[in-house]
Amino acid sequence: MIIGFPSCDDSVPALKGVKLLRHSILETSELLRKGAVSPLELTNDCLKRIERLNPSLNAFITVTAEMALEEARQAESEIRGGNWRGPLHGIPLALKDLIDTAGIRTTAASALFKDRIPTEDADVVRRLKDAGAVILGKQNLHEFAYGGSSLVSYYGDMKNARNPEQITGGSSGGSATAVAAGMCYGAIGTDTAGSIREPAALCGVVGLKPTYGRISTRGVIPLSVSLDHVGPIARSVEDCAVILQAIADGSSNGIENYIEAIKQAPGSLRIGVPRTFFYESLDPEVSSAVENAVEVLKTIASEVRDIEMSVPTDRTLQKAESYAYHAEFVKRSPDLYQPETLRRIRKGEEIDAAEIVHAQRELEQARREIRNIFEKVDVLVTPTTPIPAPRIAELKENPEALRPRELELLRNTRPFNVWGLPAISVPCGFTQAGLPIGLQIAGPHWREDLVLALAHWYDQTAGGVRS
User: Fold this and answer.
1) pTM, rounded to two decimals
2) Is the confidence at residue 251, as pLDDT, over 70?
3) Which fold has domain 14-462?
């Protein structure tokens, strides 16, 4: 049962003859500039959908309705006055509740931070506000981003908009299901091992993890500072490109015009298919959908070739850095963590300084060596997750299966955080039960333009994979 993004027969409110939430951000932006719709209308429509759907999906922790309406009024006044800031001006977005917002609580989905109110905006929030975006609120997540199911949160489980009996994936589960349900035009998530791409794949939307350092993590509660990334979750590749354009850090190797990049066919590309590791032990329906996607990509590629590559799997650095952030909190207030989160954090307690230094060197070496792969191919293509979304009841009934299943879901995404490469998940089909399947496309460092261009071409060519 799909209760998410409006389909052709969904009764979306029509305002001034325009059916909202069926348009891309660029299309909606043009409607705003023409006065066909107003930011207030867009914002009210999203707030109504949040009011109707959030009780069942549990996507939002905090809804900042009054602030959002005030921002929408300001955007409307500015646009009417000819002071248009760009394609996000007046567009309703939302934030994973791991990202600091001045004067608004940022909880990390934990009782530990339930009353935490930052005094400054995170860099990414400041950039969104400068772009004129309307912030609808803060979205639920797997506590402190330490998991891939979104079934561990002080504020309760998140439900998949495609089927509320299935998990959303995580840790950006609230963000992905909110986008899938049409509660917002896009969201900002974080990704340490796949926490943008995995829930995007399971909820049938698009999630982009940029190059490590492309988007500032200042003001984002860390999970692992060496692996944390910030990025957009949206309904299409184009929408992700629009959001990335606004939030990318100009000091990090320059900024391409991502919006223009996706308008061009990606050209003759060499596509690498790393079958060892990434294509092993796949659910048969995932395997079939991804193989079909590879066949589609062959029509534009100059070459599609199987490649062998060494894949990093060690998690020492992530465990150590997670514990380093939480050590004092764990000593003072262990009872304020969810038990499973506390167990995971304490896994890093016994890692010594020598092990950390070794793990940091291994990370640096992995990021250098991965460049050699892109002398042979231009992009890599894999399944985003080896399996579709598990049932919530299955994992609740078998708690010991939760972490192994999360690690399975994150298997294909985690290496790209180690390498620091830009990687995107796009929908590439559904199981017979109607569960979304994701295709992951990754490219060289700082080549988000290339990744977005190929993903957009596939999104347009494959057509209907979200239906």
Assistant:
1) 0.95
2) no
3) Amidase signature (AS) enzymes (3.90.1300)
